[in-house]
Amino acid sequence: MAEPTGIVAFDLDGTLLPDTTVCLHLAPWVGHDGMAELERQYAEGRITNAEVAERDAIFYKGRRRHDVCRQLENLEFIDGLPETIKWLKGRSLVPVIATITWRLAAEFVRDRFGFAAASGCEIEQTDDGIIQGVVSRHFDAANKVGFVQDIAAGLGLSLQNVVAIGDSTSDIPLFRAAGLAIALNASDNAREVADLEFETRDLRDLIPAIDRYFSTAPLS
Q1: DSSP labels for the chain?
Q2: What is the reported pTM?
Q3: Res 1 pLDDT > 60
């Protein structure tokens, strides 16, 4: 890829995964019956993502990272994801995953589809990949901004050279910081701060808007 001219940061839960979240997908396997309620309380602003992570982490104790990733293999992603990543790279744009879910899951998606980087909350593991059931590093909505900003700085770019794509509360700080914010199948509060809104099951429908933005966005 030629010298990067911009970054496109995608949320994972509810965005690249339009019908579920990582934790909801894994909940039956780990035996966490209360995961849906925790996510509802987070969406309503009644608990923090740190509280969600702490309460979820214990259900992973003793499991292997490899086995978690095997459970992620049958996730159903938004249509057009591989084609969109290919287009971005051909346009010298860097695709990254900016999410607050488990980083090990985000890294699985990163490697599967060819994203450049992935964020997320970290769960403690041994050197041989056995999960300890405790959070080793929390990651919240505000941390998304720093994550993307660090990537941009490393490429000699600024947040004006970032398109942020997301669907919910955790995307709002990055929406406010990015050059262009796109709400995709989003909640009302995310739509309120976005520059553009899309209702679609195909990620390729966003390509013209991304292309228009980077055709005029200044390098910095």
Answers
A1: --S--EEEEE-TBTTTBTT--HHHHHHHHHT-TTHHHHHHHHHTTSS-HHHHHHHHHGGGTT-BHHHHHHHHTT--PPBTHHHHHHHHHHTTEEEEE--SSBHHHHHHHHHHHT-SEE--BEEEE-TTSBEEEEEEE---HHHHHHHHHHHHHHTT--GGGEEEEE-SGGGHHHHHHSSEEEEES--HHHHHH-SEEE--SBGGGGHHHHHHHHHHPPP-
A2: 0.95
A3: no
